[in-house]
Amino acid sequence: MTNKNAILRINNLALDVSIGIYEHEKFLRSVFVNIEAQIPQELANPKQDSIEEVINYEKLVEAAKRAISSQHIYLLETLGHKIADECFKIPQILAVNIAIKKLEPIKAVESVGVEIYRQR
Description:
- The protein is 19% helix and 36% strand.
- It has 120 residues and is of the alpha+beta class.
- It has one domain (6-119): GTP cyclohydrolase I, C-terminal domain/NADPH-dependent 7-cyano-7-deazaguanine reductase, N-terminal domain (GTP Cyclohydrolase I, domain 2, 2-Layer Sandwich).
- A hairpin with a 7-residue loop joins strand 3 (95-103) and strand 4 (111-119).
């Protein structure tokens, strides 16, 4: 992401989602989501100490939560793009980097993950 814009970060947001390609994965499990959202620099430089002058971090958390459907999702990649789509509903977002990891998906593996970068 470019240096001339500011970055909002959400780190290790735990979400419960039914995700995976195998039958034994069709239950709710936690995934961890990291979001980096690029915004115009002026939205990170408020004139006063006021939430009205910036993007509330909760909007990014809500975007990630909206991306989880009631239906089973097979791929982390699909979830990553759904989260990106929801983040872009915030008009000031210029680009997003979504990193998702699923814990213990395979015996002897701590986690697997994917990172999705998209810009307007």
